[in-house]
């Protein structure tokens, strides 16, 4: 194989880890293949200090990478599936989803072992409305304080004493070698994850069949069907990881079980729905659970959130 594969990637530690992971897997699957990284600074990284929901627009982290693909400056882009918008620009698509890492949220603290061990009034850092809604529903006494930045920055802010605990995706911590910082994993029952959490996906040009074939050994079918159902739910609710929508699918044999949740950011109300369907109906399952959430009143909650975040 004479061709080189160029991977467009953000420069954050997690993005670089994921790009290096895909590079290593590609080299392993295709001995002799040349794979290189094309690091770029994304608009989301430049705006790391502003609340994401307020600067608005899904996929802030993704756009620059897509431009590089369209302008043929790179061949593939590696994404956290949780951050990938539902729709792709003309000429691009998602052609590979790798095996999912731990999908749960993780409780990280230097003083306490778990959420339940936090004294009343403790300060918990997260800027995810999804995490905030579920935390406050269970522990209305907690104070949620805004926390952004990449994984290293967030841990540094915890260590500086600004928070009693912070909540992060377990997957990011594990990938970056910070597994020992996880004091307890929060069950999916207590904190339903964001759609796609823990999974890495690969975007490339739709016409580049040579790349599609090279990516095939990295594709993990079980993860892909689960994430397909989750993304269908998100898409139907016009959601992303910056809104209080959670969803999580698991396989029970050849049957998919999808749970979804929409919550008021203050935890006052959590709407839940779930359903099962055959793997072949993954997308329809996502739409079905989303529709059930809408019937329960999810639209009213999301209208307020989108309004505040400046969405249409
Ligand atoms: N929204 C940021 C983001 N996007 C992906 C991950 C890491 C975990 C994953 O792959 O889902 C994180 C950090 C976090 O939420 O703690």
Major sheet: arrangement of strands: 2-1-3-10-4
Radius of gyration: 19 Å
User: What is the average per-residue confidence, as pLDDT, rounded to a whole number?
Assistant: 92
Q: What structural class results from the helix and strand content?
A: alpha/beta
CATH topology of the largest domain, by name, is: D-Maltodextrin-Binding Protein, domain 2
How would you describe what is shown here?
The chain starts with a strand and ends with a helix. The chain is 35% helix and 25% strand. The protein is an alpha/beta fold. Helix 9 (221-236) runs parallel beside helix 10 (282-296). It is globular, with a radius of gyration of 19 Å. The protein has eleven helices and 13 strands. The structure holds the ligand NCc1[nH]cc(CCC(=O)O)c1CC(=O)O. The site of the ligand NCc1[nH]cc(CCC(=O)O)c1CC(=O)O has 11 residues, from strand 8 and helix 7.
Topology summary:
Elements: E1 4-10, H1 13-29, E2 34-40, H2 43-46, H3 52-55, H4 63-70, E3 76-80, E4 92-97, E5 105-108, E6 123-125, H5 129-138, E7 143-145, H6 151-159, E8 165-169, H7 170-175, E9 182-186, E10 200-205, H8 209-215, H9 221-236, E11 245-252, E12 255-263, E13 270-278, H10 282-296, H11 298-309
Parallel strand pairs: 1-2, 1-3, 6-7, 6-8
Antiparallel strand pairs: 3-10, 4-10, 5-8, 5-9, 11-12, 12-13
Helix pairs in contact: 9-10
This protein binds the ligand NCc1[nH]cc(CCC(=O)O)c1CC(=O)O.
List keywords for this structure.
312 residues, alpha/beta, D-Maltodextrin-Binding Protein, domain 2, Double Stranded RNA Binding Domain, 3 domains, five-stranded mixed beta sheet, Porphobilinogen_deaminase_C_sf, Porphobilinogen deaminase, hydroxymethylbilane synthase activity
């Amino acid at each position: 194989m004479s061709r080189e594969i160029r991977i467009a990637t953000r420069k954050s530690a997690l993005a670089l880890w994921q790009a290096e992971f895909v590079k290593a897997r590609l080299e392993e699957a295709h001995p002799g293949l040349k794979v290189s990284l094309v690091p770029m600074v994304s608009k989301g990284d430049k705006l790391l200090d502003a609340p994401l929901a307020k600067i608005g627009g899904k996929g802030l982290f993704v756009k620059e990478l897509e431009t590089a693909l369209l302008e043929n400056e790179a061949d593939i882009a590696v994404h956290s599936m949780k951050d990938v918008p539902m729709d792709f620009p003309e000429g691009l698509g998602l052609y590979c989803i790798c095996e999912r890492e731990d999908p749960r949220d993780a409780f990280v603290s230097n003083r306490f072992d778990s959420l339940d061990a936090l004294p009343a009034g403790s300060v918990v850092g997260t800027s995810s409305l999804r995490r905030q809604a579920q935390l406050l529903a269970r522990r209305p006494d907690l104070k949620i304080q805004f926390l952004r930045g990449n994984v290293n920055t967030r841990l540094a802010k915890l260590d500086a004493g600004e928070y009693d605990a912070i909540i992060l995706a377990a997957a990011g911590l594990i990938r970056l070698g910070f597994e020992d910082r996880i004091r307890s994993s929060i069950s999916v029952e207590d904190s339903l994850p964001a759609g796609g959490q823990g999974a890495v996906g690969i975007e490339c040009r739709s016409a580049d069949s040579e790349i599609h074939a090279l990516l095939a050994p990295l594709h993990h079918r079980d993860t892909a069907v689960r994430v397909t159902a989750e993304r269908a739910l998100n898409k139907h609710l016009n959601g992303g990881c910056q809104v209080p929508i959670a969803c999580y699918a698991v396989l029970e044999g050849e049957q998919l079980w999808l749970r979804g949740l929409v919550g008021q950011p203050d935890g006052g109300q959590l709407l839940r729905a779930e359903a099962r369907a055959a793997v072949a109906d993954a997308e329809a399952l996502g739409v079905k659970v989303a529709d059930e959430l809408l019937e329960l009143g999810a639209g009213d909650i999301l209208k307020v959130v989108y309004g505040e975040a400046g969405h249409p």
